[in-house]
Amino acid sequence: MSDLMIGTIQPRHERLWRAGQDGNWEFAAYELGNLRGAFGRLGRAHPTEHETSLPDMITSVTERPFNNLTDAIRSKDAAAFAKAYGELTDACNSCHQALNHGVVKIGRPDDKSQSDLALHKAP
Q1: Of 39, 40, 91, 109, which alpha carbon lies 20 to 30 A from 53's?
Q2: By C-alpha distance, which of 56, 60, 62 is closest to 13?
Q3: Cα 35 to Cα 97: distance, rounded to the nearest angstrom
Q4: 20-41 core/surface letters (b: 16 or more CB in 10 A; e: else)
Q5: pTM to 2 decimal places
Q6: Considering the domain 2-98 in this protein, what is its CATH number?
Q7: How wide is the angle at C-alpha 70 spanned by C-alphas 58 and 80, nearest 5°?
Q8: Angle in degrees, 0-180, between the axes of helices 78-98 and 54-75, rounded to the nearest 10
Q9: Could you tell me the CA-to-CA distances from 107 to 9, 15, 60, 62, 104 in Å, in that order?
Q10: What is the dihedral of CA 117, 84, 67, 21, to 10 degrees?
Q11: In a 3-state reduction of DSSP, which class is residue 119?
Q12: 8: part of which helix (H) or strand (E)?
């Protein structure tokens, strides 16, 4: 599962953010479609995780943020895009927590990094 996350989902999540920040709405729509597809493939490849239906969990946490991102991209609304992207990021982190992978925390990419992985030292 981590290979699919690192190889397909994480880069698409990061490129989606950068496209929205650049106002490249066509590419943002493209990456959002790719991200949806990547989550679908993840669910098919790993139908259960810790006795939880992964496809159901993915749908339950991503449906609203995906719909909000779609609306923001269509309307070319940068503020709505940023809000919806934050909702998606929070949804990803809630899944990580629920599946006992809370050490994996996703954030918004910044200009210093080519990744959306937020690395923090344990207290």
Answers
A1: 109
A2: 62
A3: 20
A4: bbeeebebbbbbbebbbebbee
A5: 0.88
A6: 1.20.120
A7: 105
A8: 170
A9: 13, 13, 20, 16, 10
A10: -80
A11: coil
A12: none
Distance of alpha carbon 79 from alpha carbon 16, whole angstroms: 14
CB 84 within 8 A of CB 68: yes
What is the domain partition of the chain in residue ranges?
A: 2-98
Percent of the chain with pLDDT over 90: 84
Question: Which amino acid belongs to residue 70?
Answer: T
**Angle, in degrees to the nearest 10, between helices 25-45 and 54-75:** 170
What average pLDDT does the segment 1-8 reach? 92
Rounded to whole angstroms, how far apart are CA atoms 71 and 64? 11
Is residue 5 within 8 Å of residue 13, measured between CB atoms?
Answer: no
Contact 66, 87 (CB under 8 A): no
Q: What single letter denotes the amino acid at residue 113?
A: S
- Non-local (6+) Cβ contacts of 42 within 8 A are 1, 4, 5, 8, 9, 54, 58
∠ CA 63-66-69, nearest 5°, is: 150
Q: Does residue 119 carry a pLDDT above 60?
A: no
